[in-house]
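Message: A physicist's question: would you kindly supply an amino acid chain plus fold tokens?
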Amino acid sequence: MLRQSSPSVYELAASIPGLSGVEVQTTRSNLWERETVLAYKKEANRWKMRTVSMGGSLPAGGTLLQPGPAEESLRKTIRSGEILGASVVLVPGFFETCPRMDDEASYGPVVELLKRLSPVAEDAGITLGLELSLGLADYQKLIGLAGHPAVRAYWDATGTDHMGHPGEGIKGLEVLGSSICQMHLKNGRKLMEERHLLEKHPKSPQPDRTMSIDWTKALPIVKASGFEGWFAFETPHESPQACVEETKKNIAFVMKYLS
């Protein structure tokens, strides 16, 4: 919900009807420290609000393309996620920090890293959710090479289109379906129900702006797919009060198509 959170995030989340959990930001919120993670756990229990997933699993400057430091970071995030009861650790890789799937020298070490970490994550009851700037076919290739049920896609339909793969956001919902471990729901700076041209991603290879996802079509696909994971709203807000009011509207819109 917040780029840098505090234990009070659970109280804010609990004030939003229909919200059942939060994705916390690991490194920016100092959640590798045991004292901090236990403070979060206490507040999560107090407000009966689950910690669903661990975002921000790599520190500033850390990337999947540096397997040694990345392994250390992800192991610490898995450990914190186990304490908090999270089911997913988000593993990011965008553009220059994303493996190139046409170059084994780029993706090979990442595959080996995922193979080492997947049983560690599984033992902790956690899935490593890959959120990458790859197109769908390359996503499938990387997950297939990792070859473990604890390595799955953390799908962001809007992000996929926005980062240079227009049309593949919804296609991924159809193709990956129930194998997706978690999804980000977002719509630029608009409510989920508003279709519009997204601001151009500065690193997208596409020359033109991309139209936002038509969620009235995408959500029925999700419903039919058998997906059983969590949705995490990744949405900007002007204030905590705006977060509450706009998230209520977004939840009502999403549930209209999933109920």
About this structure: The two ends are 24 Å apart (CA to CA). The beta strands are 21-25, 50-55, 88-93, 127-132, 151-156, 182-185, 230-233. The CA atoms of residues 196 and 241 lie 24 Å apart. Residues 104-123 form the longest helix (20 residues).
